[in-house]
Amino acid sequence: MDTGVGPDGEAAEATGESRVPRRGFLRSLVAWGAGIAAVGVGVPEANALRQGTRAAGTAAAATGTRLRRWAMVIDLRRCDGCQAIDEPPRCTQACIQGHLAPEPMQWIEVYEAPLPGGGTQFIPSPCMQCQNPPCVNVCPVGATFSTPEGIVLVDQMRCIGCRICMEACPYDRRFFNWGSPPIPREAALTEYSAEHEVPAIRGTVMKCEFCPDLARGGRRPYCSQACPNGCIYYGDLEEDLATNGREVVRLSRFLSKNTAFRLKEELGTDPRVFYIPGYGQDVGRSPYRRGLKRILWPWRRVAAGSERWGR
Amino acid sequence: MSARRGDPPAAWRARLERRVLAPLARTGWRYRLWILFLVAVVAWAVFAYSRQLGRGLIVTGMRDRISWGLYIASFVFFIGISHAGTLLSAILRVSRATWQMSITRMAEFITVVALLVAGLFPFIDLGRPDRVFNLVRFGRWQSPLLWDIFAITTYLTGSLIYLLIPLVPDFALCRDRLGQEAPRWKRRFFRAAAVGWEGSPGQQWRLHRAMKIMAVLIIPIAVSVHTVVSWIFAMTLRVPFNSTVFGAYFVAGAIYSGIAAIILLMAVLRRVLHLEEYITRTQFVNLGYLLAALSGVMMYFNLSEYVTSGYKMEAGVAFQFRQLMTGSFAPLFWLYAFGGLLAPALVILFRRTRTIPGIITASVLVVVTMWIERYFLVVSGFRVPLMPYAPASYAPTWIEWSVLAGAFALFALIVSVVVKLLPVVSVWEVTEQEEWERPAEVVQERGWAPAAVSPSSGGEP
Question: Does the distance separating the beta carbons of B55 and A139 come in below 8 Å?
Answer without folding.
Answer: no
